[in-house]
Amino acid sequence: YGRDIQGQIALDFAIAISRAELAWIFCADTNQAGMRIIIVGAGAVGSYLAERLSSEGQDVVVIEDDERRAAQLQETIDALVIHGNGASAHSLEEAGAPKADLLIAVSNSDGANVLACFTATELGTTTTIARIEDSEIREGADRLEIGRASCRERV
Fold first, then answer.
1. Which residues contact 105 (CB under 8 A, 6 or more apart)?
2. How far apart are the C-alpha atoms of 57 and 55, rounded to whole Å?
3. How far, in Å, are 52, 53, 72 from residue 28 at the CA level?
4. Residue 98 gets which letter from DSSP?
5. Residue range 63-75, pLDDT digits in tens
């Protein structure tokens, strides 16, 4: 039952970004296994994405600031899980951001997601995606040239 909820939440997130971007995330139309993908936030969406991408052969690293959640996730998936602040340069460097192909920031904080993407880009991450629920923050994120931003207004 829990996985169905995670799947639905991830689907909702996917709808908020374009289908082409989701296909790119899941490498549906490429055979590019072994991409370095960093996921910031191990809530329902982050955990689902990490599990799915790692099962497809991607090199996944998750950064989670809740120590208990990070430990639980580390026990359930084949990925490196780092306990830390996903918006900090230190945690992003530890996760391999300078050589990462993709960073997906899906924490529960719009500001942290934007900062994680900005910092990862500065460190050399090729592509970033931030979940942003507040359209005003999205406007600021656009000025920071964050690669892609998903925006869904809070209801």
1. 39, 40, 41, 86, 112, 113, 114, 116, 117, 128, 129, 130, 131
2. 5
3. 12, 11, 28
4. G
5. 999 999 999 999 9
